[in-house]
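Entry 12.
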Amino acid sequence: MAIANYTLQIDEAEKQRAETVFKTLGMTLASGINIYLKTVGRQKRIPFALDINDEAPSLKDTILALQAESVANGTAEMSLEEIEAEIAAYREEKRVRFKYYSLS
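Predicted 3D structure (tokens):
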């Protein structure tokens, strides 16, 4: 994976507020931004809203929910290579399907 650097100009107060939120969630500003960008790329939409309030799940509860979801969808025991192969196969199927419809 190639790493790209990107300079972002934001209001200092906004940055501080975001860092406070991410710290409360147990992550850095950089990791929060990376999670956001990966999710946007994967879902092709603005994916979620993170709130900090009394009703928001804790980081531990969120991790446990994600683990339960991975067990339910059969990916919990998959290696990274298996997951990558499955993604590659899906992309190839999509590419072939698009090519077929483009030729029709």
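Annotation: The longest helix spans residues 80-103. The chain has a mean pLDDT of 84.
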